[in-house]
Design goal:
The chain is built from 1 helix and 9 strands. It is mainly beta and about 140 residues long.
């Protein structure tokens, strides 16, 4: 949970200081199914020193009601290029246990790919299953 809070704090600070091309709705999106329920998110993304941070959120970026976040090394493509995947909703925070991804594009300020997996809750309880995950973001 601390990792998520720190990530969002850093993201909010950077986004408040810099214009982010991915926040203009110009083709950036994250969508997925959580236990079969379809979800779509607004997107912010930023390249910090060779690591791309992508966050899909509902609500406002400074106070999201639900979000997914993950990182990708700049330029990395192929299987399992996504790292540090997490999902947070009003009930709990979830970290990936079994997770696969495929990044098909990651150059010239654009990243695109797919993902799926099983996530475990931080507070205990039942795992959730992410399917049909897709993302496209400008940075």
């Amino acid at each position: 949970m601390k990792k998520i809070f720190l990530f969002f704090s850093a993201s909010a600070m950077v986004l408040s200081l810099n214009s982010c091309s991915s926040d203009d709705g110009g083709g950036s999106s994250v969508s997925l199914k959580v236990d079969g329920v379809s979800k779509s998110f607004k997107v912010v993304s930023e390249d910090f020193g060779g690591v791309l941070f992508v966050t899909g959120y509902k609500g406002s970026v400074s106070n999201p009601t639900e979000f997914v976040s993950f990182t990708i090394e700049s330029g990395a493509t192929g299987a399992n290029a996504i790292t540090d995947f997490s999902y947070d909703n009003t009930t709990d925070s979830y970290d990936a246990t079994t997770f696969t991804s495929n990044v098909s594009e990651n150059a010239n300020g654009k990243v695109k790919g797919t993902f799926s997996g099983t996530l475990e809750p931080f507070e205990g309880g039942s795992d959730i299953v992410i399917t049909d995950g897709k993302f496209s973001a400008k940075y």
